[in-house]
Amino acid sequence: MLEAFIFATILSGFFGLVFKENLMMKIISMDVMSTGVIAYYVLISSRNGLFTPIFSDNTTNNYADPVPQAVILTAIVIGLSIQALMLVGVMKLAQNNPTLETKEIEKNNTPMKS
């Protein structure tokens, strides 16, 4: 059941990225899709019976692998920085164009054929 919700999240972000015309909506859709992918990675890497690798009095050796956690943290940081960079690009486009619709921006910035 949880896999279905995560898959629906990824698909809704993908379709928003493809079909939305507004640049802000595309950025939000990309963030939704990224969140779904990270949630799916966390879902497949989690297993029952494993402990977090922190210091404790627990003497069992059933620790979870810390590498997927580090990969997810890196993916979150990279996703945040890419999103900030895209927002700066949208701000620069908004200074020169009255709209954030992609078709209008393409129409306004296409050179005229003579």
Automatic annotation (TrEMBL):
Membrane topology: Multi-pass membrane protein
Sequence intervals crossing the membrane: 70-90
Record lineage: Bacteria, Bacillati, Cyanobacteriota, Cyanophyceae, Oscillatoriophycideae
Any single Gene Ontology cellular-component annotation: plasma membrane
Highest taxon, organism lineage: Bacteria
Pfam families (UniProt xref): Oxidored_q2
Cellular localization per UniProt: Cell membrane
Main location, first listed in the record: membrane
Entry protein name: DUF67-containing protein
Keywords: Cell membrane, Membrane, Transmembrane, Transmembrane helix
Similarity-based family: Belongs to the CPA3 antiporters (TC 2.A.63) subunit C family.
